[in-house]
TrEMBL record:
Catalytic activity: a quinone + NADH + 5 H(+)(in) = a quinol + NAD(+) + 4 H(+)(out)
Any one GO molecular function term: quinone binding
Localization per Swiss-Prot or TrEMBL: Cell membrane; Endomembrane system; Membrane
Protein purpose: NDH-1 shuttles electrons from NADH, via FMN and iron-sulfur (Fe-S) centers, to quinones in the respiratory chain. The immediate electron acceptor for the enzyme in this species is believed to be ubiquinone. Couples the redox reaction to proton translocation (for every two electrons transferred, four hydrogen ions are translocated across the cytoplasmic membrane), and thus conserves the redox energy in a proton gradient.
Family matches, as Pfam families: Proton_antipo_M (PF00361)
Record protein name field: NADH-quinone oxidoreductase subunit N
GO CC, any one term: plasma membrane
TM spans (from-to): 12-32, 41-60, 80-100, 107-124, 130-150, 162-186, 206-230, 242-263, 269-287, 299-316, 328-350, 371-393, 405-426
Gene source species: Candidatus Korobacter versatilis
EC number: 7.1.1.-
Presence of keyword Methyltransferase: no
InterPro entries the record matches: NADH-Q_OxRdtase_suN/2 (IPR010096), ND/Mrp_TM (IPR001750)
Length: 488
């Protein structure tokens, strides 16, 4: 067995940086003056997110590097997802600085858990060993379980954390059983070795059971139907900045794992489960969102629907071509940009105790805070898929790949669901711009202007959404390179 070298540590450099900053935040917190501002801890966590982005940039200089006995792989694929996770983490942390103080949340624990959760997500996207993926999945999950219940004095937050923990642990058990069956069928848990073993060993029914069980576990993490039941309650109860983070970064990492398992390992028998889950997710997600009056629950059902659109790209990649895979990768980045921004607006407007999260609370927002209303309107239009936004090209690439793969029925269903989604997104815009705000709320809601950290975070989300909608070619090219490395 070869000794561990410096190259091995370079393959996990972003994870090491994030873990180090998480420990520093925890060590520094006791020295912060009691009763003083905890924002310096948040700025330190933001610096950690930027440092992990710099570490990823350094990794990109030596693509396709393996480390730790070929369990970790640095390629264009892992670098792409590392960048997405680092940017989402930075924006979510920046947007939570004022929220944490307003909601009286333990700042040291909050920021450290955000950093530690990102460690697991980064490792999920670069791991090529199923057991290591399971460990990374647990690191990510445990952090988000606790983050969901950080509003300790609020019963709905504790309920969200408990539901998320119980159902998440159950789903993780499915994934672990799938890993054990895959080992029984192939004699290995290395993704890079599973494909050759499957082709050499011929048909083995255990492989189909293994793929199904792993898909159940990962389907929970990406909130796809029929594994979506936890999503509305958890999104409603968890702190808004946490939802901004957990609705994007963990999903990106889980989709990265799913791409590696399905395509890098060339596992069979996944097409129809993915097809059915895509159809159910789009339909149930959009229909469920129609009846919601709470904006967090509405975006929770929207998140389920977008998981369905992403799975359409998976289904379109049944021949393992780069078109569908690159479309899925691009969609992940676009969805992260627009969704994290939408939840940061909710975080800003929710008020102490998150009292103002009903859609009607947004009435007259265009007159009270025109810049915030315009930003939210743009992000919602992107979620619909309006041209000149990242959401438009994300859906365009997904449905184009589906048509190239002759998935006409799934494409039509996706377009119909996009039309349904336009109703509930536009309803929020109508409330903001065409309804007067109730007089009794004038002194309790919307009086505070957006702070500089919140404004910077929201601006970054809006600019990223516009960039992906106006000049998508560069990011799409990176997604294509990532897809080629995945299939190498």
């Amino acid at each position: 067995m070869n000794p561990i070298t410096n190259t091995d540590y370079v393959t996990i450099l972003p994870e090491l940086v994030l873990a180090a900053f998480g420990l520093i935040v925890m060590l520094v917190e006791p020295f912060v003056t009691k009763g003083g501002s905890r924002k310096p801890l948040g700025y330190l966590a933001c610096l950690g997110a930027l440092a992990s982005l710099a570490a990823t940039w350094y990794q990109a200089g030596s693509p396709y590097t393996q480390g730790f006995f070929k369990m970790v792989l640095v390629d264009h694929f892992s670098v792409f997802f590392h960048v997405v996770i680092a940017l989402v983490l930075f924006v979510a942390l920046l947007g939570s600085l004022d929220y944490v103080e307003r909601q009286h949340i333990r700042a040291g624990e909050f920021y450290a858990l955000m950093l530690f959760g990102a460690v697991g997500m980064d490792l999920m996207s670069s791991a090529t060993e199923l057991v290591l993926i399971f460990i990374a999945l647990e690191i990510s999950s445990i952090s988000t379980y606790i983050l969901a219940g950080m509003r300790r004095r609020v019963a709905i937050s504790a309920e969200a954390s408990l539901k998320y923990f119980l159902l998440g642990s159950f789903a993780t058990g499915f994934f672990l059983y799938g890993v054990s069956l895959m080992f029984g069928a192939t004699g290995t848990t290395s993704i890079l070795a599973i494909g050759p073993q499957l082709h050499a060993g011929g048909f083995n029914p255990l492989v189909f059971a293994a793929v199904a069980l792993m898909f159940v576990g990962l389907g929970f993490k990406i909130a796809s139907a029929p594994f979506h039941v936890w999503t509305p309650d958890v999104y409603e109860g968890a702190p808004a900045p946490v939802v901004a983070f957990m609705s994007t970064a963990p999903k990106a990492a889980a989709f990265a794992v799913l791409l590696r398992v399905l395509f890098a390992a060339w596992t069979p028998g996944w097409f129809w489960p993915v097809w059915i889950s895509a159809a159910l997710s789009m339909t149930l997600g959009n229909i469920g969102a129609l009846r919601q009056t709470n904006i967090k629950r509405m975006l929770a059902y929207s998140s389920i629907a977008h998981a369905g659109y992403l799975l359409v790209a998976f289904a379109a990649s049944k021949a393992a071509d780069t078109a569908g895979i690159s479309a899925a990768i691009f969609y992940t980045a676009a969805y992260a940009a627009m969704n994290v921004g939408a939840f940061l607006v909710i975080s800003h407007l929710a008020g102490e105790g998150e009292r103002f999260v009903a859609i009607d609370d947004y009435a007259g927002l265009s007159r009270r805070q025109p810049a915030v209303a315009a930003s939210l309107a743009l992000l919602l239009l992107s979620l619909i898929g309006i041209p000149a936004t990242g959401g438009f090209f994300a859906k365009f690439y997904v449905f184009s790949a589906a048509l190239q793969a002759n998935l006409v029925g799934l494409t039509i269903l996706g377009l119909i669901n996009s039309g349904i989604a336009a109703y509930y997104y536009l309803r929020v815009i109508v409330v903001m711009y065409m309804r007067e705000h109730p007089a009794e709320h004038e002194h309790g809601h919307g009086a505070e202007r957006i702070t500089i950290p919140e404004g910077v975070a929201l601006t970054l989300s809006v600019l990223a959404t516009l960039y992906l909608g106006i000049m998508p070619n560069r990011v799409l090219q990176l997604a294509i390179e990532a897809a080629k490395d995945l299939l190498r």
